[in-house]
Write a structure and sequence with these properties.
With 485 residues, the chain is mostly helical. It is built from 29 helices and no strands.
């Protein structure tokens, strides 16, 4: 009805453009372009009055349509719902025709990406079950699988009820079969990994079902087949991060070569901070699981990879924290300690503690590592590194005076460093007593065993008070100078 009204208005407006009986030319109210008087060719511009009349006609037509059909959004929703219903029926009636199913899934993917109402309509019509049936029927048809995965990816994002329906309908097994059948297609692998990530992020039960369905093996195979594709490695590591726990998939990791795949992804894509962040977290979990995984990581140059990652991304606190944690959990024998020292692990550790002084976990783990690496620092005979280690421990005590874990770890580090060069540690401790304050200075002196001598203890306290008094006087003088200015 609205379309008919629109056509009627346009016809009524265009009827004024009839031919003149005397000259044979169109009059001024026509919609078509006028002809030239000399050669009869069509001119390139319409008259201004004709343009205005056309715009008025279109405006009147749109108003008539709005009055006849109501709000345009309601009409669009009704048409979209009808379209979705017809597509879902086509999925059921053309189950044996792969090209039609691929077209239907592509159209559904386009519609589902518009708004939430379209996704709810599709979900209410059992669309997930219809798409999974089409994918199960044509496992080796790449177009059907890619379009179906695109639809599922649109539907499951940020929706718990749709994800639970997907899992209960056997969708995880269908996606795993798709990954196994199309291992050479990295686009299908990426889409499937994104679906698995959304499913694993829903709750713990969904993550356990992913492991039982063989999703870990499928993701590892995808990462092994496409080592140089950044998006495959990124999404694959994200899926593994969601499903791996110290108790669930240790045997699966050992069987599939999990550590080798993660380390290869970190080595091939060292500039990607997202891959390095997830990779460091995965390695920190693996080194705490079993001795076999720990030995596998050491054998595949895991220490060198983590050191390089920490040096390339010094501003990322997430990477620095898990890198320090990996070092702490790998310190099981002298060979690992030597490897950390030789490949620049001490410099990476000192950089992490200097760049992230506010992060208490980095400071705690860093001081514990300083205590364990003190022997290698002593063997290097490098006074600069020793001074940097002492300064890092003192700065940790200064920054977090009320945190017991940081204070204990830094005190233990100072005790071990004092055994290497007591004069250096004592001089640096007394030199920073004004910055440390009274209570922190007492802890530092207790750590380096200076409180046994009453004279040294009194000297340190007087020096601390004198420095604080000088700070107050200098601050007052600066304020006085600024007022005078």
């Amino acid at each position: 009805m609205a379309v008919a009204a629109c056509e009627g208005v346009l016809l009524a407006r265009s009827s004024n453009g009839s031919h003149c009986r005397r000259t044979g030319r169109r009059r001024r109210g026509e919609l078509s372009a006028p002809t030239c008087r000399k050669n009869g060719s069509i001119r390139s511009r319409l008259h201004t009055r004709s343009q205005k009349r056309v715009c008025q006609s279109l405006q009147t037509c749109s108003n008539d349509c709005r009055i006849a059909s109501g709000p345009s959004t309601l009409l669009e929703k009704a048409l979209m719902q009808t379209r979705i219903e017809s597509i879902v029926r086509s999925l059921g009636s053309n189950a044996d025709k792969a090209h039609i199913l691929a077209q239907c899934c592509s159209e559904l993917s386009r519609i589902a990406g518009k708004d939430e109402s379209c996704r709810e309509t599709f979900f209410s019509l059992a669309g997930i079950e219809a798409v999974l049936a089409a994918m199960s029927e044509h496992v080796y048809e790449g177009d059907v699988q890619l379009a179906g995965c695109s639809v599922l990816e649109q539907l499951l994002t940020n929706s718990v009820d749709k994800t639970l329906s997907f899992v209960s309908s056997g969708g995880v097994r269908t996606v795993v079969n798709t990954m196994a059948a199309h291992r050479a297609s990295w686009t299908i692998q990426v889409s499937c990994c994104r679906i698995l990530y959304t499913t694993a992020a829903c709750n713990l039960e969904c993550a356990i079902q992913l492991v039982d369905a063989g999703a870990v093996h499928a993701v590892i195979e995808a990462m092994s087949a496409h080592t140089m594709v950044l998006v495959v490695q990124d999404v694959g590591c994200s899926v593994l991060q969601k499903v791996i726990t110290p108790t669930s998939v240790v045997n699966e990791c050992l069987r599939c070569g999990f550590a080798c795949v993660v380390l290869r992804a970190m080595q091939d894509h060292s500039a990607s901070s997202s891959i390095q962040k997830v990779g460091c977290k995965l390695l920190s979990i693996m080194v705490s699981c079993s001795a076999s995984l720990k030995a596998e990581i050491i054998a595949n140059r895991g220490v060198e990879t983590v050191v390089k990652t920490m040096l390339l991304h010094p501003e990322n606190g997430y990477i620095q924290r898990f890198g320090c944690l990996i070092f702490l959990r790998l310190l099981v024998n002298g060979s690992v300690i030597r490897t950390i020292t030789e490949c620049g692990g001490i410099q990476a550790l000192l950089g992490a503690m200097a760049n992230h002084r506010e992060e208490q976990r980095i400071q705690t783990v860093g001081c514990r590592l300083l205590k364990d690496l003190a022997e290698q620092v002593s063997a290097s005979n490098d006074q600069c590194i020793l001074s940097a280690c002492v300064l890092a421990a003192l700065r940790a005590m200064e920054k977090h005076p009320n945190l017991r874990k940081v204070q204990d770890a830094s005190s233990n580090a100072l005790k071990v460093l004092t055994s290497i060069d007591s004069r250096l540690v004592t001089g640096m401790c007394l030199g920073r007593c004004g910055r440390l304050g009274g209570s922190v200075t007492s802890r530092a002196l207790d750590a380096i065993k200076l409180c046994d001598d009453p004279a040294k203890k009194k000297h340190a306290r007087l020096s601390c008070r004198k420095r604080s008094r000088l700070k107050q006087l200098s601050g007052a003088s600066r304020c006085r100078l600024s007022v005078d200015a």
